[in-house]
Design a protein that fits this description.
Length: about 300
């Protein structure tokens, strides 16, 4: 039984949908569907009942999902366990982030870590957004630079920087002529948030803030691709959130000539911080690293 086939099958069972499973795995629907069909052919039984709106497991599928989840969890923990042994010998600290996080923040955190543990090798790993928190939970990473809150009980976090978000729109939007907005100006407009799949807690936090400030039509864009979201904004005239005067990271696409980004005086806040496993925070070298982060950003607090 191929691990890839099992991973695809479990994702479909957990999501109840081939499309959502594919997005979670950073694949298209076709290879996920093909992997499940090959698994069914190998086992010699149907594993899923494919409905028009949802997918449910057959009795054989339920059994495979129960046993397979344990096998996959053990398999996924194997590499981190071996790597932890190697890292202990090499004295390595692993810091993870994604291409969506502002590189200036990542660089600042890495610099603090390197100064805190000068006798250690600091390795920076860029992960797929949907995988970052899982890699932190598994112990593949010692520290992650991510959008907060993390929303996972096993993880702890500390704020590094808080951004007041602005509104992105197409350049020809009537609001684009202004220099500044308030939430009242966009209360009746459709505001698209990126898919919650990579970071459901932080996207949910943004949505709550928008609705609390009077936004009446906040929607989740079906894909986590910010470029696709920008194209939707350009075609439809909907609005999106964007960092203001930050031309790197997740929303840099909105600084192209086709768009306009305006500050919002009472707009929602986006938090970027560091996360770690709570059961490891007293272990070295993480304890030294966290003390250095707290000293460098003393007002951070802990949103999780």
């Amino acid at each position: 039984m191929d691990v890839h086939h099992l991973r695809c099958f479990l994702a479909v069972v957990q999501e109840g949908h081939f499309g959502r499973a594919a997005e979670r795995l950073h694949l298209t629907t076709s290879p996920v569907s093909r992997a499940v069909r090959e698994l069914e052919r190998e086992i010699g039984a149907q594993l899923l009942v494919r409905g028009s709106r949802e997918v449910t497991p057959t009795p054989a599928g339920v059994r495979l999902a129960e046993r397979g989840a344990v096998v996959l969890e053990a398999f996924d923990a194997l590499l981190p366990d071996v790597r932890a042994t190697v890292d202990l010998q090499r004295r390595v600290v692993r810091v993870g982030s994604t291409h969506l996080t502002e590189p200036e923040v990542v660089d600042a955190v890495v610099e603090v870590v390197r100064k805190a543990v000068p006798d250690r090798e600091v390795v920076v790993e860029l992960c797929a957004p949907v995988e970052l928190q899982g890699m932190l939970e598994l112990g593949v990473l010692d520290l992650a630079v991510a959008y907060l809150p993390l929303g996972r009980p096993a993880l702890r976090s500390r704020t590094v920087v808080t951004y007041r978000m602005g509104i992105a729109m197409r350049a020809g939007d009537p609001l684009a002529e202004r220099s500044r907005l308030s939430m009242a100006d966009v209360a009746d407009r459709t505001i698209q948030l990126p898919s919650a799949t990579p970071a459901p807690a932080s996207v949910g936090h943004l949505r709550h803030q928008l609705e609390e400030r009077g936004a009446r039509d906040v929607r989740l864009f079906p894909a986590s691709d910010v470029v696709a979201l920008a194209e939707h904004i350009r075609r439809t005239g909907d609005l999106a959130l964007s960092f203001v005067n930050v031309r790197t990271g997740a929303t840099r696409v909105f600084y192209e000539p086709a768009f306009c980004v305006l500050p919002v005086a009472d707009g929602p806040e986006m938090i970027v911080g560091v996360g770690w496993r709570g059961d490891r925070q007293a272990d070295e070298p993480l304890a030294t690293v966290l003390a250095a982060v707290s000293a460098h950003w003393p007002g951070g607090g802990q949103p999780d």
